Amino acid sequence: MKKCLLYIVSLGALAVASPLTLQEAIDMAKSNNSQIKAEKAKVEMAESGRIEARSRFLPKVSLSASVTKINDPITIDLSSLQEPLSEIAGASAYSKAYINAYNKASAGYKQAYEGALAQTGSDEMAKAYAENALKEKLGTGSPETFAQQSADIYSDAAKKKIDESDFGMKVQDDVFFNARVTVVWPIFTGLKIYSAYDAAKENVNARKAEFDMAQNAILMDVTTKYFMLRLAEELTVLRETTMKNLEGHLERSKKLEEGGQISKAERLRAEVALAEAQNALEDALRDQSLARMALASLLHTDTSISATTPVEAPELDRSLEEFKQMAREKHPGLRQLRTERKRSHDAVRAARADWFPTVALFGYRELYTKDLTILEPEWAVGAKAQWDLPILGGAESRAKVTSAKAMERSLVSKEEQTLDNINLLVEKRWREMEHAKSRLTSLVKTRELADEALRSQTRAYEAGLATGLDVVDAELSLSRLQVADLKAHYDAVVAWLGLLEAAGEIESAGSLMGKAKPVEAPAATENTVETAVPADSAAATPADSTANGNTATPAEQQVATEAPAQEPANQTDAAKTADSAQKETSAEKTEAK
Questions:
Q1: What are phi and psi of 168, to 5 degrees?
Q2: CB count, 10 Å around CB of 201?
Q3: 3-state secondary structure (DSSP) of residue 570
Q4: In degrees, to the nearest 5, what angle opens at C-alpha 22 toward C-alphas 220 and 329?
């Protein structure tokens, strides 16, 4: 009852599953997968870094403003100059006043003297008259005395004015405001800015290569899981078909037992075979559910999906050497290493830039001039050169250059090794695909023989010439060949996907497989003896399962256990399996009776 319920629920879930082609699965992974989104964000970060590096070629404009409070106003104390300046001012005023007063008194004395001399004709009387006149007018009869008195007055007044003056000058208030716009433009940095910009561009290319590599790995996982699901669905159909055939065999056995043509043991053997087929179908349904969940997890969608792209061994339109050439040109890992090599070359150039000076133009303009001191200009322009001479730090610069060169050599060696590994990977995938194709070719005639063996054993059993065990063995032999056919198709497609991944074209797998006709939703097969899974049926293995302690998935374990022990290319074993059924008919019949 439990098995029937599981079977009904699984068929119901399959009935409502949305068909999904390989290209649709790839598109969903590219848009929904979290890891792909994270790698894409890294590319965007690298693009921002490139834009930032490019902006360093342009002048840098900055606007600054500040309000400052200091403990005391800033003043200049000139009191030590006050006394010398006072003496100088007094002497200067004395000299000037003396000359002016002397000239004035001399002119008056001369005028009085000449007038008196003209009237009296006596020199002595003229001098006496002139002195008396000068004394009445100026208070003294001597020009020298008058000049000295006037000079003393003016000198004292000048000294007093200097002595009473304040010789402390305020330069800056204790609270002041500044606002300035500044422009700096580096015009030569020893190629530092250019090297940094080149490194930023190569960093973008490296992140893109890293994104492509991560996306290739994820899409490889998605396509593999996709065909795992398809394999699980085909195995479910195969198990269901086998169970239907064994149910028909059991019904015929019951009728033959009622007619006395076979023994009870024959009927019990048919029941045991049917029970085992039901268990196999239950396992196939469980594996199919696991495969669907694994694919849905990668696509970030629900589990109501069904793979429709069939698994067909694709016809290659390129040779082995062409695939190797594509891998050498487009493999993301190689592109990333080549980009890192360019970045290391830029690092060498940037390290050498430490040996050159840095030259920049600058200019600034004060936007608020009220609080400027007498020593600060309102604007200024100029050029600045700075050269860190490697007198003491030369060893550091040389070490940087040596380290960058060593990194470049290391990346060259890694690129050569990676190239060899990729060539080996392409060769391996190519041979795996050729091997799977050869297995498919050998299975064609072998399956025809197995179909004919089952048909003949069934007719012989109905005629009483063969045992039920013969029919069961023939049925199981055909089932094993069908599983081997699915496995060969699956191996061929996985090897082909590996070639595309190595060549960096796994993204185009959906379009390349788009020529194949989509498979309709699996349905139960009619109860008939002639049952075979089409050669172009899709194959997919369920998600990772560790049942019974094995690391292989349940479907892969099932394929491995049910496939022939030797390669299907050896048709001798399959022929022996079919021929032995007829040769042992009489012996089995006797034993049954």
A1: -115, 120
A2: 20
A3: coil
A4: 45
CB 236 within 8 A of CB 280: no
Question: Beta strand pairing status for 168-172 and 74-77?
Answer: antiparallel
Residues β-bridged to residue 178: 66
Checking if the pLDDT of 155 tops 70, the result is yes
**Of 8, 74, 32, which Cα lies nearest the Cα of 371?**
74
Contact 184, 364 (CB under 8 A): no
Place of tokens 């007498």: 374
Whether residue 514 contacts residue 593, with contact meaning beta carbons closer than 8 Å, is answered with no
On the 0-12 / 13-18 / 19+ scale of CB atoms within 10 A, 301 is middle
- Label the pairing between strands 175-188 and 60-69: antiparallel
| pLDDT reported for residue 82 | 66
- In contact, 197 and 56? CB cutoff 8 Å: yes
Average pLDDT of every residue of the chain: 75
Closest Cα partner for 342 from 543, 227, 202?
A: 202
Look at 103-107, 247-251, 302-306, 451-455 and tell me which has the smallest mean pLDDT: 103-107
Q: Of 80-84, 120-124, 200-204, 228-232, give the range with the top mean pLDDT.
A: 228-232
Beta 305-307 vs 18-20: how paired, if at all? parallel
At residue 475, does pLDDT exceed 90?
no
Q: Model confidence over 30-43: pLDDT tens digits?
A: 888 888 889 889 89
Amino acid of residue 459: R
Q: For the residues 406-428, what does the mean pLDDT come to?
A: 84
| Interval 281-305 mean pLDDT | 89
Q: Is the Cβ–Cβ distance between 554 and 236 less than 8 Å?
A: no
Q: Do 264 and 247 contact (CB within 8 A), yes or no?
A: no
CB 555 within 8 Å of CB 542? yes
Q: Which long-range contacts (CB under 8 A, 24 or more apart) does 249-253 make?
A: 249/273, 249/274, 249/458, 249/468, 249/471, 249/472, 249/475, 250/274, 252/461, 252/462, 253/468
Cβ contacts of 337-342, under 8 Å, gap ≥ 24 = 337/411, 337/414, 337/415, 337/418, 338/415, 339/202, 339/205, 339/206, 339/209, 340/202, 340/206, 340/411, 341/408, 341/411, 341/412, 341/415, 342/198, 342/202, 342/205
Task: Tell how far CA 292 is from the center of its chain.
Answer: 29
Q: Taken in order 33, 38, 42, 47, is the CA torsion positive or negative?
A: positive
Work out the number of other CB atoms within 10 angstroms of the CB of residue 585.
18
Q: How far apart (Å, rounded) are the C-alpha atoms in residues 227 and 436? A: 16
Strand, coil or helix: 367 = coil
Question: What does pTM read for this prediction?
Answer: 0.61
